[in-house]
Please model this.
Amino acid sequence: MAQVSIDAQAATPSLLPLEDRVAIITGASRGIGRAIALHLASLGAKLVLNYANNSAQAELVAAEINSSSDPSHPRAITIHADVSDPNQVKSLFDQAEQAFNTQPHILVNSAGVLDPNYPTIANTKIEDFDYIFNVNTRGAFLCSREAANRLTRGGGGRIILISSSMVGGLKPGFGAYAASKAAVETMMRILAKELKGTKITANCVAPGPIATDMFYSGKGEEEVKRVIDECPLSRLGETKDVTPVVGFLATDASEWINGQVIRVNGGYC
Model:
């Protein structure tokens, strides 16, 4: 009886759908990126946590993930890289392969910026426009290009780009930001078709207003209240509203979802 029990246990498939798969997450030190990293870790993934500026916060995320693993074999590492720099993006993927001795399986491009002054298009500064497009659009392009060439083929390859429901919301003050994300969505749809034969899928997740530092930046109490009032569910989104969607897209169960934009916004727009 004991032998049967052991054999049955050995035959039981893992309950962790991303066990031993390597996921690169850009912008993983805070906000939505941080929450995605923690969620994918709970699904068994090994994490490459990219950050641009805040190494201390990135290390805290890694420490939280590694707290339950063998110190000699950490499940999460941190890597500094500017996603708008092609050499640094290449290095990010190089270091990911070296750290875990395998090709990465998943890219989640969560790095993003906006102008907290929310200027009209007529008042948008050229340097601010360029900065937004460099991080949001050029960054998504460079990371997607690297992923298309270097993610595992034959199954389990996932490119997930974080867009924004503002592409549909079209609110004044978000001209450059919404345009940068609209370009990402268009690029993703074409990429999904170009990846035919690799079994790598490409999708966008487009959150609505999520209660993060990025959302609150530049907004007063009245503006926050107005956004809440515009949502049919009468609340701001939370990172936990977004992470299960990204987690699902990262697993094998999502294979038939490809070239899609999934708006996660509570009906906001």
